[in-house]
Amino acid sequence: SQQGEEDPQALSIQEGENATMNCSYKTSINNLQWYRQNSGRGLVHLILIRSNEREKHSGRLRVTLDTSKKSSSLLITASRAADTASYFCATDAGSSYKLIFGSGTRLLVRP
Amino acid sequence: GAGVSQTPSNKVTEKGKYVELRCDPISGHTALYWYRQSLGQGPEFLIYFQGTGAADDSGLPNDRFFAVRPEGSVSTLKIQRTERGDSAVYLCASSPSGSGYEQYFGPGTRLTVT
Prior knowledge:
The structure holds two protein chains of two kinds. Chain A is built from no helices and eleven strands. Chain A has strands at about 5, 10-15, 20-25, 30-35, 45-50, 55-60, 60-65, 70-75, 85-90, 100, 105-110. In chain A, a hairpin with a 4-residue loop joins strand 7 (about 60-65) and strand 8. Chain B has strands spanning about 5, 10-15, 20-25, 30-35, 45-50, 55, 65-70, 75-80, 90-95, 105, 110-114. By secondary structure, chain B is mainly beta. The interface of A and B includes residues 42 and 100 of A.
């Protein structure tokens, strides 16, 4: 069963705009991760945020985590056409190894 | 260095046949995972190996599915008496250990059961 739910399911923006995706989950976690997937194949790890962290940055990516609301957000600034992909949040649901993924947000960045 | 590799990249089989899917993890990674992804969904956990042993196989859907990792590196996912509902992309991932690390995913095997 899916632990997380991403919102929105699909997002279309113009190149240069910011993209924000949200993730909600159900159970307590040790960490939460965001992955990107192109063309329905291998996933690429973007960022990991631990349960005692509130915000993390990596390049154009900014991730926030609110454990009281069981939610996270991924912000991609100054988007590029190459950012077009599906984005998934994944939690460990307290197991520390097994990832439980949401259903993803499909991002389209129009040139 | 080399990433996680999976073979074959695509597999088409008839209903009722047996298939084997192979995963080569990143060298030195002790943890290996199998996930299954249906169209439009996120990956779903199948099984986790720490070394040679299956530490958690709670995600395997039924006893037609089995996975091995005899020497603690390469893993094979085996599916007996395939059904059309088994059609999906099967993803393998590895990590340095099982705890709190990012997982490195392979490109997946797309299995189609006709």
